[in-house]
């Protein structure tokens, strides 16, 4: 169909570009470097389509993150804050109780502009009412021009890199375990074996070879924008959200132009949202226990432990020391720390 062709881009164009890109592997899957960042080879086409066709609205709210840094949690919190006037948080009609957060806040390059066109279709974006809630893993520099130049706002979340790695390891292992024998998985992620270890993930990270990374370039890119354009980019940390969710939720609500009123505060609305979006509550929901997102990822794999500091059980002292040095080097000149 003609509309799809407009968005998919010609296979030839994508092939030509992919031939020129630097290539590597990330724990067995093929990745390519585009505009300084790594992508699974099956994502390149989506990224190009997203960059070329997405038209931001001034009212859009876009979550940006590296995978496994708290995207799903932030999706649920943002949805709850923005829609709090429509659905009382303890009401059974709140869509967060009957939908996985990824079904309420669409991922742009991995869902909307996926060549698989599962759901939603890119044209569906035009039908969404404002403010549209969307998400991306692209680095700031690679975002479509219309995101940078419109009034839309970006909420970035980051997380301790070692905890992110632990989370990525378990997520990837679950996905591989379920699918690696299936042809579809090999086709989609280009996986081959042997089974990767935590050391393999760690090594890939330290060599700046992780999907959507290098990690610190991604973080510093958004961090700089949050300083230069504080009304455009809100910078959040997973650990701070865990530590004091009330303060961070107030920051979030103010940033999106919907601050909590004193009446809401005294009625306990903030705490209700925190409780509804807690990992414990999210895990208990039937909708998050079964089924898959976009025919591939089991919904339950997005909720594991949800803790700060799980890394202490997974890395040796030399590995921790190596990461500490890497952090010092890469974050020099910023006041960022984890
Ligand atoms: P762990 O694997 O460390 O438990 P992402 O959403 O970016 O894919 O990140 C997934 C990580 O966020 C997982 O971390 C997951 O458990 C955690 N997470 C998901 N929902 C959460 C919530 N409501 N509160 C806290 N953490 C959550």
TrEMBL record:
GO terms for molecular function: sulfotransferase activity. Keywords: Transferase. Gene3D superfamilies: P-loop containing nucleotide triphosphate hydrolases. GO terms for biological process: sulfation. One of its GO terms (cellular component) is cytoplasm. Its EC number is 2.8.2.-. InterPro entries: P-loop_NTPase, Sulfotransferase_dom. Residues 58-334 form the Sulfotransferase domain. Belongs to the sulfotransferase 1 family. This is Sulfotransferase. It comes from Spinacia oleracea. The gene is LOC110778804.
């Amino acid at each position: 169909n003609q509309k799809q062709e407009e968005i998919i881009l010609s296979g030839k164009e994508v092939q030509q570009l992919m031939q020129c890109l630097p290539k590597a592997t990330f724990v067995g899957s093929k990745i390519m470097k585009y505009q300084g960042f790594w992508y699974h080879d099956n994502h390149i086409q989506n990224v190009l389509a997203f960059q070329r066709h997405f038209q931001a609205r001034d009212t859009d709210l876009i979550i940006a993150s590296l995978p496994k840094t708290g995207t799903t949690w932030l999706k649920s919190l943002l949805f709850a804050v923005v829609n709090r006037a429509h659905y009382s948080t303890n009401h059974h009609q709140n869509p967060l109780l009957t939908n996985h957060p990824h079904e309420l806040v669409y991922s742009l390059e991995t869902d909307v502009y996926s060549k698989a066109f599962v759901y939603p279709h890119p044209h569906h974006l035009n039908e969404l009412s404002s403010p549209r809630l969307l998400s991306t893993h692209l680095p700031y520099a690679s975002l479509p021009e219309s995101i940078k130049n419109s009034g839309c706002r970006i909420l970035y979340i980051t997380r301790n890199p070692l905890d992110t790695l632990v989370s990525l390891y378990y997520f990837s292992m679950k996905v591989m375990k379920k699918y690696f024998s299936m042809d579809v998985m090999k086709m989609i992620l280009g996986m081959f074996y042997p089974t990767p270890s935590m050391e393999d993930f760690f090594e890939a990270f330290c060599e700046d070879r992780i999907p959507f990374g290098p990690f610190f370039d991604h973080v510093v890119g958004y961090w700089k924008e949050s300083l230069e354009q504080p009304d455009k980019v809100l910078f959040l940390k997973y650990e701070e959200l865990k530590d004091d969710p009330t303060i961070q939720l107030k920051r979030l609500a103010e940033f999106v132009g919907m601050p909590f009123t004193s009446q809401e505060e005294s009625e306990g609305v903030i705490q209700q949202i925190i409780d509804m979006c807690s990992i414990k509550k999210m895990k208990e929901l039937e909708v998050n226990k079964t089924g898959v997102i976009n025919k591939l990822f089991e919904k339950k794999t997005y909720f594991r432990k949800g803790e700060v500091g799980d890394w202490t059980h997974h890395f040796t002292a030399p590995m921790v020391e190596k990461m500490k040095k890497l952090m010092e080097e890469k974050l020099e000149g910023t006041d960022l720390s984890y």
